[in-house]
Design goal:
single chain; alpha/beta; Helix Hairpins; 2 domains; 5 helices; 5 strands; about 15% strand
Length: about 290
């Protein structure tokens, strides 16, 4: 049976780990509350900007030949080059949060490459960068500390080169992948085709249009709004991913704390058994000594 001192050291070590995991859970819970509020606000804004974009794009397509409203809105069923933009965390200790995104990206790579499509990766988050770098996969663009502290201007700067390559016909499609916040207990992998933009199926009429702009200004407004739409979708992906990361880490730390508690109980039982065995051994030795003196 293990030495009493060794068991005591193990118990203290597990208890210290339990304190750490409990503290990390509380920190993640506090961060989740703030990030979740921002995510919900951003979701509402994203829905509205998509609606406005659909409105203008539909109006522009009505007055242009064959509905041609620019490459950003022309669907390409046979792309030759695809950019996959994906978001992971900069840190671990959040269960399978990062691996879920990585597996999805790996699956997309296999699917496209099997069709002869060239795939380029653009990563936001240290965990994704480290994984694919270790696998020997080339990464076109990397961003560390962007997913852990989302900033609109930095998000727009990150996605700028992606958009420019699409506009210059270097790429034919841009897909964004991230693990989004579903609720306090679960996350959901989200795969969205960022470019070309798929317009929502909304009914637009001249009398019900939400915008009051001159027809000649439609093209210019559409261009500006398209840029805002792409920038904000990148920013929203970072925010939503961060909320999901805090949720996943909170659950992971709760599970770790529970396991630590169970381990402490198990070690305590083992310690008590060892102590009882030691006491019994001492009693036997004393009784044997007394009997020997008779």
């Amino acid at each position: 049976m293990a030495n009493l001192k060794e068991i005591k050291l193990k118990i203290n070590s597990v208890k210290n780990t339990q304190k750490t995991t409990k503290a990390m859970k509380l920190v993640s819970s506090a961060k989740l509350t703030r990030t979740r509020q921002l995510s919900e606000q951003s979701r509402s804004y994203a829905a509205k900007i998509n609606e406005v974009l659909s409105d203008i794009a539909t109006r522009v397509s009505k007055v242009q030949d064959e509905g041609n409203i620019g490459r950003a809105f022309v669907q390409n069923e046979n792309p030759k080059t695809v950019d996959i933009v994906f978001v992971t965390a900069d840190k671990g200790l959040c269960g399978g949060f990062n691996m879920s995104t990585i597996k999805t990206v790996s699956k997309l790579i296999s699917e496209y490459e099997s069709k002869g499509v060239k795939v380029r990766l653009r990563a936001a988050g240290r965990k994704g960068v480290d994984f694919f770098s270790f696998q020997g996969q080339a990464i076109e663009q990397k961003a560390i500390e962007l997913s852990s502290a989302p900033d609109y201007d930095k998000a727009a700067s990150f996605i700028h080169d992606v958009v420019e390559d699409f506009k210059n016909e270097v790429t034919d499609k841009v897909i964004i992948v991230y693990n989004g916040f579903l609720n306090m207990l679960s996350q959901e992998i989200r795969v969205k085709e960022l470019l070309p933009i798929g317009l929502e199926k909304v009914e637009i009429s001249e009398t019900t249009s939400m915008l009051n702009i001159e027809p000649d200004d439609d093209d210019e407004v559409l261009k500006e709004l398209t840029d805002k739409y792409i920038d904000f979708n990148m920013y929203y992906a970072l925010i939503d991913s961060l909320a999901a990361e805090h949720s996943a880490r909170m659950q992971a730390m709760e599970s770790a704390s529970k396991n630590a508690k169970e381990k402490v109980n198990s070690l305590t039982v083992e310690y008590n058994k060892a102590r009882q065995a030691a006491i019994t051994t001492e009693l036997i030795e004393i009784i044997s000594g007394v009997e020997a003196l008779k």
